[in-house]
Each structure stands twice: as C-alpha cells, then as structure tokens.
Design a protein that fits this description.
alpha+beta, nine-stranded mixed β-sheet, five-stranded mixed β-sheet, binds adenosine-5'-triphosphate, binds magnesium ion
Length: 566
C-alpha cells in the first residue's frame, strides 16, 4: 500500500483533551479521530490494528471451542425487565423508544439477550456445554467518558457466554476462557495480569479481571510481589494482626471546633490519624447505618454493601446524618449510636481511640469499643493501602494502577433462573443451566498496547497488531531505479504475508522519519539513491536505537526484515 493512497493525517500537536500518552498518540498518529465526547471514528490505520486484535481474539475463541454469533444491538426492554436490570442499570444504559412507543436499550452487555437465545435452542444435556461469542459494538452512557478509546460511550467488545450442566462443568468453561485470554493478550504483545475482582451488579461467585499495569490506569490493584496475589482494590484483602491496646480510663469529651475531617482533627489534637476511628453514615436499602474504619483508611463501599447484603448503598445525605447523629456532618461516632454500627476488623479490641461525639464540634477520647459501643459486626470494610500485609503470604503488598482490558465471570444461575433457561437431564429432569460471561474491550486493548509500548517519539507497535509491519521510506520517488527497488521489495514482503506501507510522498526525509516513528511501524526500511550508491538499503527496528541500523543489499533486505520481525 502506498502512503499517498491512504487517508493519513498525522498531527504535530497533542489534542487539547488528551490527558494520557496513548490517547495523544492515537490521535496524533491518525489512528482515530474524535467526533464528539466519547465518540471516535477509526481511520484506516487504526482500523487495521483493531481488525488484527479482533482476529487474534477470534482465533483464540475458536480454538477454545467458542462459536461466533451476533446479537442485535437494539434490545427490547422486556428482556431487561425479566432480569431486573431495566432498573438497576440506571442512567448508564442508553434507552430509546420505537414509533409504537415500545422501550428499547442500546446494548451495554448481552447476558439477557444471549440467555433468551440459548434457551430457545438448547433443551437437552446433550447440547451442552456451549460457549458463544460475538465481537460487536457496546454502548454505555459513562459518567466521565475520557482517555480516548479507554472509556468511550460506544466501543467494540468481545463478549462470550458459556452454558453448562453444572457448577463443576462451568468451572471448566471458565478456565478455558481464562487461558484463552492469557493467549490473546500475549499475542497482542501485552503484559496483562489476571487479578481477582468483585462480581459487581452482575452477580456470581468467581471473577478475574485482566489488567495491563500502567500509571495511567483507572483501577487500583493490590499486588503482592512475593506470592503474586493480585486483587482489584474493590476486592483486595489484607491480613490484620490482633491489637493489644492498653486499657484506658473513662471517656472524655473534647471540644474540637470545626475540626471535621481526620486531617483537621488529627492536626488539632496532635494525634496520628491511626489513633482515630472514622465513622461514616450510609443509607442501605433505605435504612441508615454507621460504618467505622481506622482513621488512616477509607471505607470500601463494595465490601460494606456485600456485608449488609444490600441492593442499594449510598452515603447518607446531610439531613439524615444530622438526624442520626444530632450534629452537623463531621462528628458521627459509634458511642450511643441510634443505628446499627459495623466496624472494620482492625478495630476489634480497640481501646483508647478517639471518635466523633455525635454532637457538633465534639469528639470523645479514651473510647474502648468493646466497653463503650455496640458493634453489630467486625468485618473487612476498608480499601487496602500500600504496605498492608498480603492475606495469602504475609508479606507487604504494593498498590499499582491498571487498565482493565478483559474480565471473566462465573455467573452461576442468576440469568438462567430469571429466564428459566433449563435443559433436560438424561433421566428427563429439568435443570437450570449454569452460566459464565467473558468480556474483552477490543478498542480499549488497542489503546492499552500503545500505553504500554511507546516512547517520546511515538508508538512502538508489536508486529502482531501493528497497522503495517514494515514501512519502506522511498526517499526519491521521482528516481525510477529507486522506485523500482521499493516496489519489488514491497511485492516480496506482501507475498510473504508481511504487510507493508510505502511512504511515496515527496517530503523531506526528516518529515517522513518523524511520521514513521510517530505511527511506530515495527520495521523501517529506507531506500534512496544515495544509499543505494553506497551499498544498499537501511533497515532498522522501531524499538532499536540508530546505532543498530544495518545496511544491506536490496536483495538481502527481505531476510533481514523477517529476522527483525521475529
Ligand atoms: P470498567 O470497570 O472499566 O468500567 P466494566 O467492568 O464496566 O469496565 P465489563 O462490563 O467487564 O466492563 O466489560 C468488559 C470489558 O469491556 C472491560 O474489561 C473493558 O475492557 C471494556 N470496557 C468497558 N467499558 C468500556 C468503555 N466505556 N470504553 C471502552 N471499553 C470498555
Ligand atoms: Mg469489568
């Protein structure tokens, strides 16, 4: 392919709204173009990388025995009402009506649709297991679309769904997808780590996210370098050592005018944040509760929601806090609480701590939780921090940032129950199918590759997903001998299935090299009259420094290129 025949519009300046490198490079290298917030068009170069990632996924899904299907993007509301998610998806789902005023959703995911489909096809255990997948658009009305393709309103997802006769069989389907995911990301040149994850609204028992570690990642992950335990911060646990606090005297009220946050009060009283108990008021399924955590930790609302087995959990609004505590916001505490109090496990046995006084501008010192409060339950209720102890091996953990590129869930029977998706066993009993669901953000993966592999000059594509594997720089397009060699080389490469772009523009070499580095083709070949007179063509990998460049005779170039692409 010739550069001049391709729609490429590289940019020198970073787009104004781009905060992270991969977003800047996506746009500058002319892979995508923004149409509106969270909406991107793929340009020809970006399309090629997207298709390559897609193809790798397709091959690995097929190899794992999954069957490709395609479901409608427009889904009737009834499906979502059956599962109860017409309500629980909230404003994250795009909704619309047809001319007869019937409600629809633009697919954010497809558990409902696929369960309805499989239910209508499978009736006997003989037809199971089955795993289906599609590579198709998804729509989500994200609160904050940003970072280019990382979090857009419309994106390409591979979603797969498995159906099995039993929980044990479903584990096998889960593992098949888990292993396929590892291969997918490896083949894309990505280092992606499986991380234990919460199952969220979707329900189910077992779940891993695949994360690409990057400072630009939106998710926090607790990682133990020693035993390789890795869990999303929503889920990550820590080991808590028993405390041996000394007993304390009677409770003492202290005036703490306007000191509401732990920072303010700890500065005011000159005590470390860990000496305090932070108390927050939540409303769980409409009822207020208090949650206490050590002053130097944050509440993990997901853990709290699970503990309470609540459908909804929100921070209490000011009016409820005032009602529950009898004070303005900032002075809640567990002593004399009017609502149930739940506390983090690290507070079990806490004595001599400082808590909010349930009275404006007041805190209480010398509190012994066992003596002075009634705690419904101690449980793991915090977000883990750097240095917390690994729950598996006891060594310190670190907190890293990650980009979630894929997610595998064991769903259980949540959807098959709702849709009555049953099969007949060999003795003709009806049983519900056991499901799993598995997603890969295809467009997000393209950008994650860039985030993980770039330098100050541009992208460094792994050969497997590069828009073109080789760029041939024709420095003298007007010189017939040069162009002849370029064209021959292009043909040889193409017939060896190495996709090649020829930069046939009449531009200064500097401009052409800059563009090649920006787009990041894995191998660059430079052909010019001067070079040929001096013995050949220049070949260099994008990832290598200039001193690694080799000069080879034109007829030898193809072997060198193949070698470098390995
Ligand atoms: P996130 O936590 O990042 O919002 P999610 O957990 O809601 O993602 P899933 O429902 O697990 O996402 O979707 C499967 C995959 O789709 C994710 O692993 C991610 O790679 C991708 N994905 C999800 N939302 C978006 C989005 N708004 N833009 C691009 N890709 C997305
Ligand atoms: Mg997810």
């Amino acid at each position: 392919m010739k550069w001049t025949k391709l729609m490429i519009q590289t940019l020198r300046d970073n787009p104004g709204d781009a905060e992270i490198d991969s977003h800047k490079l996506l746009v500058r290298a002319s892979l995508v173009k923004k149409l509106a917030g969270g909406l991107y068009s793929f340009m020809p170069l970006g399309m090629r990388s997207l298709r390559k990632v897609e193809q790798i996924i397709r091959e690995e899904m097929d190899r794992a025995g999954a069957q490709e299907i395609q479901l409608p993007l427009l889904q009737q509301a009834e499906l979502w009402k059956t599962s109860g998610r017409w309500e629980s998806m909230g404003p994250g789902m795009f909704r619309l009506k047809d001319r007869a005023q019937r409600d629809y959703a633009l697919t954010p995911t497809a558990e409902e649709e696929v369960t309805e489909l499989i239910k209508s096809v499978v009736s006997s255990y003989r037809q199971l297991p089955v795993t289906v997948y599609q590579i198709h658009t998804k729509f989500r009305d994200e609160i904050r679309p940003r970072f280019g393709l990382m979090r857009s309103k419309e994106f390409l997802m591979k979603d797969a769904y498995s159906f099995d006769v039993s929980m044990e069989e479903a584990d096998k389907s889960y593992m098949a997808m888990f292993n396929a995911y590892k291969r997918v990301f490896e083949r894309c040149g990505l280092k992606a780590y499986p991380v234990e994850a919460d199952t969220g609204d979707i329900g189910g028992k077992f779940s891993h996210e695949f994360h690409v570690l990057a400072d630009a990642g939106e998710d926090g992950i607790g990682v133990c370098e020693t035993c390789k335990y890795a869990a999303n911060l929503e889920k990550a646990e820590r080991k808590v050592l028993p405390r041996n606090d000394e007993s304390c005297g009677a409770i003492e009220e202290v005036a703490t005018p306007n000191a509401k946050t732990i920072e303010e009060i700890s500065a005011f009283l000159g005590e470390k944040p860990s000496k305090f108990v932070k108390t927050l008021v939540y409303v769980a399924d409409g009822k207020p509760v208090m949650c206490c955590v050590p002053g130097d930790y944050e509440v993990n609302e997901i853990k709290l929601k699970h503990l309470l087995d609540a459908k909804t959990l929100e921070m209490a609004p000011q009016s409820i806090v005032e009602d529950v505590t009898g004070a303005v916001v900032g002075f809640a505490g567990p002593v004399g609480a009017k609502v149930p109090v739940y506390a983090d496990q690290a507070l079990e046995g806490a004595k001599g701590v400082i808590v909010g006084g349930n009275k404006t501008d007041t805190h209480l010192k010398n509190v012994d939780l066992a003596r002075d409060t009634k705690i419904e339950k101690f449980a793991d209720l915090v977000i883990v921090k750097d240095g917390d102890i690994c729950p598996k091996c006891g060594k310190p953990m670190t907190i890293k940032r990650g980009i979630e590129v894929g997610h595998v869930f064991k769903l259980g029977t949540k959807y098959s129950n709702a849709f009555n998706a049953v099969y007949k066993t060999d003795d003709l009993k009806e049983q519900v199918m056991v499901m799993g669901c598995y997603g890969i953000g295809v467009s997000r993966t393209v950008q994650a590759v860039i985030e993980q592999s770039h330098d100050k000059d541009g992208i460094i594509w792994p050969a497997s997903v590069a828009p073109y594997q080789v760029i041939i720089e024709n420095l003298d397009p007007k010189v017939p001998e040069v162009t002849k060699i370029v064209d021959e080389l292009e043909q040889q490469l193409e017939s060896s299935q190495i996709d090649t772009l020829v930069d046939d523009r009449e531009e200064r070499p500097g401009v052409k090299f800059k563009d090649a580095d920006l787009i990041g083709f894995p191998v660059r070949v430079v052909v010019g009259a001067k070079g040929l007179a001096n013995g050949g063509v220049e070949v260099k990998r994008r990832a290598d420094t200039k001193d690694k460049m080799v000069i080879v005779a034109p007829e030898k170039a193809i072997d060198t290129i193949k070698e470098l692409l390995k």
